[in-house]
Amino acid sequence: MILMAGARASTSTAGAGACLSSSSSAAQRHTCSVRDHIICRRVWQQTMRPTTSYWRCCSSMYDYSGHTPSASLSLPPLQLPTAAPPSGGSGSRLRVFSGTANPRLAQEMACYLGMELGKIKIKRFADGEIYVQLQESVRGCDVFLVQPTCPPANENLMELLIMIDACRRASAKTITAVIPYFGYARADRKMQGRESIAAKLVANLITEAGAHRVLACDLHSGQSIGYFDIPVDHVYGQPVILDYLASKIFCPNDVVVVSPDVGGVARARAFAKKLSDAPLAIVDKRRQGHNQAEVVHLIGDVKGKVAIMVDDMIDTAGTISKGAELLHKEGARAVYACSTHAIFSPPAVERLSSGLFQEVIITNTVPVMQHQIFPQLTVLSVANLLGETIWRVHDDCSVSSIFQ
Predict the structure, then answer these.
(1) Beta bridge partners of 211
(2) Burial status of residue 99 (CB atoms within 10 A of its CB: 0-12, 13-18, 19 or more)
(3) Which of 78, 159, 308, 368 is such that its CA lies 20 to 30 A from the CA of 183?
(4) Are 237 and 340 in contact (CB under 8 A)?
């Protein structure tokens, strides 16, 4: 199933307070009625005044085909507001364009912002070359290009570079590359002699293409920010996953957060602190080669507890599945896997659906194909998080305050 947070709304308008109160618990936000959700969206459509209100609104559940639950089928259809025509005001100077890597996420972000995606033409010639043409004016506008560099990584990266170049030559005021998943982030240092640092190379390419800013979600390592010579807004998918976990009935004393390797300890510790200060366990592994890991032993106690494994990405699922096997051997009652980026390279789906995990919780920074769906999979949308960040960057507001 796919969970998607509600649309932007004003907290000061009557009728919407119950749905958007920042003081309410995460569980309460997940139990808001469909009618409250509809009221929030309609109130905002009437005011047409986006604010920097608490972005984590009530949640609605969507299946993979995009249909709403039966509880909302009897409600009249909603008409989302369209972007205002260019008139010189600051509200008309925001443009969001999508590449071909994850158009569904870009559409959800535009829906949150109350605007339409910009018109852009992207095609491939017979020899594989990429052609990009903006089909509307962006002169003097703040342009945001949504394009994760997920598989096929080289194709999507090249497409992003050409989109940036097209915006630069069209006299855009600022160009922000919105990269929900930053490929090549794992090549961020030299582990052996004569290796390249591809993360730095990709950062240079994006900068030289003409981008003024990068908005990235859950980089593999924080040091990748320093590879860019332009500002980087680094947002985290953890709040989306934490809100979902808060809606589940867990006894705080029964939960332990597990890092699948030593390198992810800082990430897991931050996650555990926000999850009722849960205890931490670490899976010690030895990597024999690329996409090959061997689990050695477990540091910490998981016997009789619900183990929540936290990682930034799942590629072939070798590390996290072997870690889950060890957790079961050590007596864990149930194992949950949480990750922001779901690459799902073969044989990831087979490993994740083998029965080791009670639930696999991911976000939609990378599009999930139909053949990658399995019963234990839950997909959460980060559209509201990225949409709120886009608005704050455009409006020169603080981004870090979202996570406070």
Answers:
(1) none
(2) buried
(3) 308
(4) yes
pLDDT level of residue 72 (50, 70, 90 thresholds)? very low
Phi-psi region of 291 (alpha: psi -120 to 50; beta: other; left: phi over 0): left
Cβ–Cβ < 8 Å for 202, 177? no
Q: What's the CA gap between 102 and 149, in Å, rounded?
A: 9
Q: With contact defined as beta carbons under 8 Å apart, do 231 and 217 qualify?
A: no
Q: Please report, for residues 54, 148, 246, the alpha-carbon distance to residue 232 in angstroms, rounded to integers and kept in the order given.
A: 22, 15, 30
pLDDT at residue number 295: 58
Question: Per-residue confidence at 223, pLDDT binned at 50, 70, 90?
Answer: confident
Q: Does residue 275 contact residue 308 with C-beta atoms inside 8 Å?
A: yes
| Cβ atoms < 10 Å from Cβ of 263 | 14
What is residue 191's predicted lDDT score, i.e. its pLDDT? 85
CA distance 97 to 361: 28
Residues listed for the chain: 404
Lowest-confidence range among 12-21, 98-107, 358-367?
Answer: 12-21
> How many CB atoms are located within 10 Å of the residue 163 CB?
27
Residue 194 has which token pair?
């004569």
Among the listed residues 169, 173, 182, the one whose alpha carbon sits nearest the alpha carbon of residue 340:
182
Place of tokens 């072939």: 316
Average pLDDT score over residue span 310-330: 94
174-179 and 213-217 beta bridge pairing = parallel
In whole angstroms, what is the distance from residue 374 CA to residue 41 CA?
Answer: 32
CA distance 112 to 105: 11
Q: Count CA within 13 A, CB hemisphere, residue 287.
A: 12
DSSP E strand stretches across 218-254: 232-235
How many CB atoms sit inside 10 A of residue 193's CB? 5
